[in-house]
Amino acid sequence: MQPARRNLLLFFALAALVVAAVFWLRRTATAPAPALPARRMDWGHATRASGCRMNGPLPDPACTPGDILPELTADKICSPSFHTSDLRDTVTSPSEKRRVYGMYGVPHPPNNRGGSQVCEIDHLVSLELGGADTMANLWPQCSPGYAGWHEAGFRDKDRFENYLHRQVCSGRLPLAEAQFQIASDWFHYWVEAGRP
To answer: pLDDT of 124-167, one tens digit each?
Structure first.
């Protein structure tokens, strides 16, 4: 047999073997793993309005489960025309917000503004992540050292909220996942992300 003819036959035999292997692998390949079910939160349904207790750096989920505005999509919160000031104090008044200190048994700090601020009434799901301005989304978050607070403080969470907003607006993280992370255990996800 001539070398050119033998090489041509070997080429076709090898090609036929590759094609057969591809068909066999496709036929026997396992189906892709099903997508994980959507993470569900019971947005806006607080079951208690007093006797609330902090869980380390996290609010009491019975008092502050978090709440969102479903109509605020990633496109809307990432738009230059979106401003959290358009949402702030639209559902709850400042005096209603101050009641949150009593719900959690945290003394309201005197002169709590500017450089002397040690606590804030925080939206668990921040307004910039589509959070709602409702009592179910509010809790008093303080700085380490105030009223026995030993955990990460409100400034840490504020930076993490900004980080998540950037992740959502860059397309690296779905808005629903950012909302889940901030509401379910912001501290865990903050640490996991490198404490941005």
So the answer is: 999 999 999 999 999 999 988 887 788 899 999 999 999 999 99
Report the distance separating Cα 163 and Cα 178, nearest Å.
Answer: 10
Give helix then strand counts, H and E, for the chain: 5, 2
β-partners of residue 119 are 142
For the chain, how long is the longest CA-to-CA vector? 99
Share of the chain above pLDDT 70, in %: 80
Report the run of H or E that residue 156 belongs to, with start and end.
Answer: helix 154-169
The alpha carbon of 72 is separated from its chain's Cα centroid by a whole number of angstroms, namely 14
Integer Cα distance of 175 and 44 in angstroms: 17
Contact 55, 184 (CB under 8 A): no
Can you tell me whether residue 58 is helix, strand or coil? strand
What do you get for the CA distance between the two ends of the chain, in Å? 70
CA angle 57, 59, 62 (to 5 degrees): 150
Taking only the tens place, the pLDDT of each residue in 81-138 is 999 999 988 999 999 999 999 999 999 898 888 888 999 999 999 999 999 999 999 9
The answer to whether 63 and 139 have CB atoms below 8 angstroms apart is yes
**Cβ neighbours for 106, distance < 8 A, ≥ 6 positions apart:** 119, 140, 142, 147
What's the whole-model pTM score? 0.78
Closest CA to 120 of 88, 91, 87, 158: 158
